[in-house]
Design brief:
With 173 residues, the protein is mainly alpha-helical. Helix content is 58%, strand content 7%. A three-stranded antiparallel beta sheet has the order 2-1-3, with no helix packed on it. Strand 1 and strand 2 form a beta hairpin. Helix 1 packs antiparallel against helix 2, helix 1 packs antiparallel against helix 3 and helix 3 packs antiparallel against helix 4. The protein is globular. The mean pLDDT is 97. The structure holds fe (ii) ion (FE2) (2 copies) and zinc ion. The site of zinc ion (ZN) has 8 residues, from loops.
Length: 173
């Protein structure tokens, strides 16, 4: 029987007989997906100067990766590449929206990002971008003062690691 689930990282709901293995929106792992009533979702947090600076940097990083992936999705010829970059773009946009809520912003900042028409070139850039995200998120998680901010950074390290694996499997290193 279908149940209503909720992701504790992005707060989005999901209808299904079982919880998904990953949140379909932000990619968070199974452990963060709870039955709706049990899910603890909070975006109203106190940010220290350091946490605020790290969250602002995270937002900019996610916006930039979103733009890069949507650019690649439009430019590459391969059907798989188009779809892979499209879903990656959607997930990064969801990450940007998490940070936007934490920062209580009205809108998402802009960013100018280019991409190649060549699938492998974009996979290589994806690899580099995800590696960057993982490195920064790990450091930000370690130094986070706020527990909720720390939780999101830790969850997103796992998601970006999944993204890294996808480009590695396709020959990017
Ligand atoms: Fe992300
Ligand atoms: Fe990613
Ligand atoms: Zn989620």
């Amino acid at each position: 029987m279908a149940k209503l689930w909720r992701c504790e990282i992005c707060g989005d709901p999901y209808i299904g007989d079982e919880a998904p293995s990953n949140c379909p929106f932000c990619g968070a792992k199974r452990e963060y997906i709870k039955e709706f009533k049990e899910a603890k979702v909070n975006f109203d947090v106190e940010l220290t100067e350091k946490d605020k600076a790290n969250v602002e940097k995270a937002l900019q990083l996610e916006v930039s990766n979103t733009n890069f992936y949507f650019c690649s999705s439009k430019k590459v010829k391969e059907e798989e590449g188009k779809k892979l970059f499209k879903i990656l773009g959607k997930v990064e946009a969801e990450h940007a929206s998490i940070w936007k809520k934490i920062l209580k912003l009205e809108s998402i900042p802009s960013s100018n990002d280019e991409c190649s028409e060549d699938y492998l070139e974009d996979l290589k850039e994806s690899h580099q971008r995800e590696e960057n995200a993982i490195g920064f998120y790990k450091k930000a998680a370690e130094e986070a003062d706020n527990e909720r901010v720390k939780e999101i950074f830790i969850a997103l390290v796992e998601v970006e690691s999944d993204h890294l694996a996808l480009s590695e499997e396709r020959g990017a290193k």
